[in-house]
TrEMBL record:
SUPFAM superfamilies: Radical SAM enzymes, RuvA domain 2-like
Names of the cofactor(s): [4Fe-4S] cluster
The species this protein was found in: Malaciobacter halophilus
Official protein name in the record: Putative DNA modification/repair radical SAM protein
PANTHER family: ENDONUCLEASE/EXONUCLEASE/PHOSPHATASE FAMILY DOMAIN-CONTAINING PROTEIN 1, TYPE II SECRETION SYSTEM PROTEIN K
Pfam families assigned: Radical_SAM (PF04055)
Origin organism lineage: Bacteria, Pseudomonadati, Campylobacterota, Epsilonproteobacteria, Campylobacterales
GO MF, one example: metal ion binding
């Protein structure tokens, strides 16, 4: 890589690192499994596909020049930082060369707004056309759409990309007006709405779409955030909402201090709650409400819901319906199907659950098997929560790779 190109890569890959809405989950491609090569110091990010494969993407900005002055953004026009810009040909050449060397399996492309929205979208489109038509690159491409760009440009980009996104960033119009005066929620969502409507009108397969919400930069509660996510899912506008703990990068009076630590645990709980929205048929107001507008950081959201709704428990594992089993903390979707299948042949006890490799570490407090309650703690919110938070100490044994629970990878609750 030539020195000037290498320097551009360092600047523009570093400028892209705060965008977490980067995933190839659920995409279709022609890649061969396992062809992951060496990594590179700048621009390479790792993500997971729906089947659990780890893939590498070149994550980079076309340019970090920007006419916007969003208070939370490192690339805001008022910041005195090193700037750079790729030409469409330069970025296409880097992408295809990295791909041929097995450094990457695809591209995640975003950009600052240079000159105006249409001009920036044209440059992104040229990059995609070089990759698709000149180099016949059929790999994964995720593009950040530019809010405010002409719909005709959006159409062309969507036709060439595997996934598109447009980051809302802040959960309310009030916060956007305060910290990002060039943006509105409607303007940000318009490209995604157009892409969705286009696919419905043309009867084509809907393209995967996502967005990012910054957590902790503004005073919105988890209820505000999850309500917005729920609405976006219900409108079939998005496949994924990504949550990003705010990392202070600018000294701004309307933002948390630079010495504040990112709310990483809160971000983690929001991802768990989002999982409940998408895979466990929870509504947002079951997870958070007026009385409890923020997620409990001590326990996961599913356990928190169970503790606040002990009247539903303990559930008899041999009689509970599929929907009821999905509500039991510690038992995931796969575990539910294992239980339903095994119940056809016999009545299950706790030993049977262990043989099915269903963890009862949390579930034991919320279930009975053949009428028997396994846990030795009293059945109350306080004692169960304390037992989950601070379980009895055991002799530490170094686990092998095969002892690690699969749920740590799948995210099952």
């Amino acid at each position: 890589m030539k020195k000037d190109i290498y320097e551009k890569m360092q600047v523009l890959a570093n400028s892209a690192k705060y965008d977490v809405s980067c995933s190839s989950s659920g995409s279709d491609n022609n890649h061969k499994t396992g062809e992951l090569g060496a990594t590179h110091n700048s621009g390479i990010c790792h993500t997971f596909t729906a089947d659990g494969r780890c893939v590498s993407l070149l994550k980079v900005l076309l340019t970090n020049y920007c006419i916007y002055d969003c208070a939370y953004c490192i690339n805001r026009k008022s910041n005195d930082i090193k700037r750079a810009a790729f030409s469409p040909r330069e970025l296409a050449d880097i992408t295809i060369n990295f791909y041929k060397r097995n450094y990457i399996e695809g591209l995640f492309l975003s950009s600052g707004i240079i000159d105006n929205e249409d001009h920036t979208m044209v440059l992104i489109l040229r990059t995609l056309k070089i990759l698709r038509f000149k180099y016949h690159f059929n790999g994964y491409i995720h593009v950040k759409l530019i809010p405010g760009a002409d719909n005709r440009l959006i159409d062309e980009v969507v036709s060439l990309a595997n996934r598109v996104s447009s980051n809302i960033e802040l959960p309310s119009d009030k916060s956007l007006k305060l910290l990002a005066p060039n943006k509105t929620k409607e303007k940000i969502l318009q490209p995604l709405k157009h892409a969705r409507d286009r696919s419905l009108q043309n009867d084509t397969k809907p393209i995967g779409m996502s967005t990012q919400l910054i957590v902790g930069a503004t005073p919105e509660t988890d209820k505000d955030i999850l309500k917005l996510s729920s609405v976006l899912y219900d409108k079939a506008l998005l496949k994924r909402v990504y949550y990003s703990a705010y990392i202070p990068v600018n000294d701004e009076k309307n933002l948390p201090s630079l010495i504040n630590k990112p709310p990483l645990l809160r971000e983690h709980r929001l991802y768990q709650a989002d999982w409940l929205l998408r895979f466990y048929d929870f509504s947002y107001d079951e997870i958070v409400n007026e009385e409890y507008p923020n997620l409990d950081e001590d326990v996961d959201p599913k356990t928190s819901w169970a503790l606040h709704n002990l009247s539903y428990f303990p559930m008899e594992i041999n009689k509970a319906s599929k929907d009821e089993l999905l509500r039991i903390p510690g038992i995931g979707v796969r575990g539910v199907f294992k239980i339903l299948k095994a119940r056809k042949f016999k009545s299950l006890d706790f030993e049977d659950l262990k043989k099915l490799k269903i963890s009862i570490k949390r579930a034991q407090y919320f279930i009975t098997c053949k009428g028997k309650y396994h846990s030795k703690v009293s059945f109350s919110k306080e004692t169960i929560k304390q037992a989950i938070i601070a379980p009895p100490k055991k002799r530490i044994i170094q686990p092998s790779l095969f002892d690690i629970e699969y749920s740590a990878i799948t995210g099952e609750l």
